[in-house]
Amino acid sequence: xxxxxxxxxxxxxxxIDWLTVAFWGTVALAFWMxxxxxxxxxxxxxxxxxxxxxxxxxxGEGYAYDPMLHGPFMFHFQLIIFFLFxxxxxSVRIGPALFGGLLVASVYLLKDWAGKLGMLAIALFITxxxxxxxxxxxxxxxxxxxxxxFAFAACGLKYWQTRKRFWLYLTAAALSIMFCIKANAYIHxxxxxxxxxxxxxxxxxxxxxxQFRRVMQSERADESLEAPFSRFFAVIRxxxxxxxxxxxxxxxIYIILYTTVFTHxxxxxxxxxxxxxxxxxxxxxxxxxxxxxxxxxxLFLYEFPALALGFGGVLISISTTARRSILAAWATIxxxxxxxxxxxxxxxxxxxxxxxxxxFDLILTVYIMFIGLWGTLHFLARRERLTAxxxxxxxxxxxxxxxxxxxxxxxxxxxxxxxxxLAGIMLRNILSxxxxxxxxxxxxxxxxxxxxxxxxxxxxxxxTTVLLNYYNRANPVERMVYTQTSWDVVKxxxxxxxxxxxxxxxxxxKPVIAVQGDATWPLAxxxxxxxxxxxxxxxxxxxCPMVVINWEDREKxxxxxxxxxxxxxxxxxxxxxxxxxxSLLKWWEYIMYRKVFxxxxxxxxxxxxxR
Length: 611
Hints:
- The chain has helices at 2-15, 18-35, 45-59, 73-85, 94-105, 111-128, 130-135, 142-162, 165-179, 185-206, 210-219, 228-238, 240-258, 266-285, 294-302, 304-318, 322-342, 359-381, 385-403, 412-431, 441-471, 487-502, 505-508, 520-526, 584-593, and strands at 484-485, 513-515, 533-534, 546-550, 564-574, 601-610.
- It contains 25 helices and six strands.
- By secondary structure, it is mainly α.
- The chain is globular and about 90 Å long.
- It comes from Candidatus Moduliflexus flocculans.
């Protein structure tokens, strides 16, 4: 009897799909990493801005779409979060953490194309990505945008594969919500639509080749063999009514959110027209300007393993013959030589239209376009459409965000997403290669070397992820930490709360604190429950227990605030590396320990307490 039970247990154990178990274990870990200790970081300026407007909306003060604050989805979704979990520093970040975890779970939709091993590899890259984890714990729109962009692409692939209308309607809903989150939906839609166009043209031209038609016939043996564009238009004709219904799904979600459930009709026009005018103006004026190659440093510092596997995998994949290997190698070497010799030279003034400043920017653009297009066509020729999509998306996405007039670290999230998927696919290709089954002595050494490199890259990722997200989450020594609210503000808030508690009844009838200048954000969020605080236009007649003003303005009110104790407080902090002060040793110390080689900067405020 015992032998029978043991045999049955072994059978059950053998039938477990360990790759699927590992995938869902990774999803669970992703949720835990995004929710763990979520509130233990001062709210950034932008977080406090969005949080305060969501709180006012929740209180019944209404909401009207403003392109400066991006789309309406996050504000409406946050109402549900506040209703279920209350209002706190934790609840305000639940939405990004939730959709950051759902992004990892949605990788399951790619199982039929990437395989179970590829699905697991992609999930691991997104789960442990320092950048994705950081902005999944940060209350801005980009975690929502990344999820619905990925969902739009994945659901569209599922519909094209299964022709089930359920996936069509989900695709329309994801696309509509994309446009209700952030204006970069236009960028992502442009990338995916142009890829479909490139794929259609390429396959239409290749359809003339007999060997290509045989491959297509073997793929779709149950259907008549048609040219790609003919098949596309045939599907349009067959599915015209479901497509119309999907259009209604898109429009109704869009209309309901932009009009705030029909209470603000002007929002519909603003969502269509003002979005374009506002962000084109921001793009042209380059309000938050950065170099064309701004995101390159983030790739090397935070996401080097994904860059090495994703981009390196493409280079290896396109080098299928000796000639192609030589061409890919010389293109890379030539780009490196030209960058070293001429990269620091400035481009002519008429290049300003492209936002390029140095010859390195032009060399980088030409190189990415060459390798990206070559890689896209290579994988399309091999009928690996998923890989081709993410090669195209990675290259074109990097160039578009490099050209965009606004450069901020959270936009790097969208540059990175397709590269993480591509890195997962390339890792799957490496692990499933037949050469690993060879038992020769050179192959054994190659396995040991590859394993060592893999361990080093995984260790680097884990080190960077833990350092950024759990130790230095609000420390300006991290390049990802962008003008972050200082911990000094949290200490100041404890003092404010103590004084508010200790003041007498007579003082309680007056405003407790007056705030003027830069500190309005994030204090508007932190002081939201105070009945007695205000933004003074002039401090001439002020008589509050506490006052907060810009540090530079203190001389202006020196006489008015004579009876107060002055404390200097760091409001926001940052670090901009001075490359002239760097050396290899200092860079090593920075990468390993985040030991900066020039001082950090800050915006300071003056905190006054009445004596």
